[in-house]
Amino acid sequence: MSTPMTADQFVAILRAEGVTVVEHRDWRNHNRNHKGPWGPVHGTVLHHTVSRGDSSIDLCYDGYSELPGPLCHGVITKDGRVHLVGNGRTNHAGGGDPNVLQAVIDERYNERPPVPQVGNATGVDGNRHFYGFECVNMGDGKDTWPEAQVEAMVRVSAAISRFYRWTEKSVIAHREWSRDKSDPSGPGMPSMPAMRERIKERLAHPASWSSSGAGTDTPQGPDMAIKPDRQRLTRTEDVVLLPGSPYTVYWTSEETDDGQQHGDGGKTMVTDRAYSTVVNVAITGLAGGERVEVFAVEEDANGDPFTSGVPSEIYGRAGGGPVRVSVPLMGVATQRLTIRVLSWAANVVTMTEARAASQYWPNV
After folding, report:
1. pLDDT tens digits, 46-102
2. How far is CA 26 from the centre of its chain?
3. CA–CA distance, 88 with 111 (Å, rounded to integer)
4. Domains in the chain, ordered, with CATH?
5. What is the DSSP string of 205-237?
6. What is the DSSP letter of 85?
7. N or C: which end of the chain has fewer CB atoms below 10 A?
8. CA–CA separation, 245 and 147 (whole Å)
9. Distance (Å, rounded) from C-alpha 117 to C-alpha 216?
C-alpha cells in the first residue's frame, strides 16, 4: 500500500528534483477528504487547464459551482513554476477505467496503458488514487507548450515516482484514464510515451540531475539556488534481529560538509532544513522467502516518530547470503534520523550494514 505523502514531504521531493515550488494560500489544509478517502495512491495524472495566465491558479484552488476546488494538487504555469493548491483528495481525475488503474498499479503495460472504455462520469474513483497536476494551456490545438513547462511536468512526475519507488509507468495523461478526455495536448506537448521516456531518464539519475547532460548537484530554480549540505551516516556495529521484535537502529559515525557532528545516537539531522535521504541496509541470514521490514524514520526531540517513510521489504535468498534494500525519506528535519526494523524470519538474522546519504537545503 502506498500511503499519501505529508505536505512537508511533498514540498521536499519537488524541490529536491529541481522544481520551483510556490505554496499557494492555505494549500496544506485544502482538500476534498470529507467527500471520500484519499489513498492508497498509485500514480500521477497530467492535465491541461483550458484557461490562460495566473488566474488559472486561483481557479484550480477554488474550483467553481459544479466542481468545487481544489481541482488538483499543483498548477504548472508556462514558466515552469509549480503552484501547490491542494493536499489530499482533489477533484482532478474523476471516474476512469479499472483496467487502466490495474495496468498502472502493475506497471506492466508497453508504450501505453489499455485504451480507456469508461468515461469520466463513471468508473473507478481516480480522485482517491492519483496525484494530479493541472498545466496552464487552452487545449485548443493552438496554445503552445514551452519547454520550461514540459520539463516541470517531467520533474514533478519523476519526484513522485522516485519517492514511492515507482517507474515512469505510474504516470498517465487524463486522456489515458477517461475516454472522454483529451488532455494534455497541443503544440509542443510530447506524446505520453515520449514523456514517460523522459521521466524514465530522470529516474536513472539522482534527483539533482540536469537533463542538459552536464549534471548538477544543485536543484535549479530561484528558491533552491544554494548548494545543498551533504551528510553521510554509518552504523559500524552489527545489529542482531530476533524474530518478531522491532528494533530502532541509531548511527555510530558521520561525515558532513559543514563539519557538524550529529552521528552519536543523539541529534543526527540539520534541524529545520528540507532534506532528501536514502538509507541503505544489508541483512544476512534470511532464508529464501523470509522477509524483514525496513523503515526510515525521523524522530522528534522526544524520540517520537515525526516522519515515517514508505516501508520497504527485503526478502531472503537460498543459502542466507546478504541481501540489500534502499529506503528513501524526505521532509523537513527535526532531530534524529533512525532505522526501524522488524524481522519476520524464523530464526535470528543480522543487519551487517547501514548507511544513509542525505542532502539538506534551506526550508524556504
Report:
1. 999 999 999 999 999 999 999 999 999 999 999 999 999 999 999 999 999 999 999
2. 21
3. 29
4. 7-222 (3.40.80.10), 227-362 (2.60.120.660)
5. S-TT--TTTT--SS--SGGG-SPPEEEEEEE-S
6. -
7. N
8. 51
9. 43
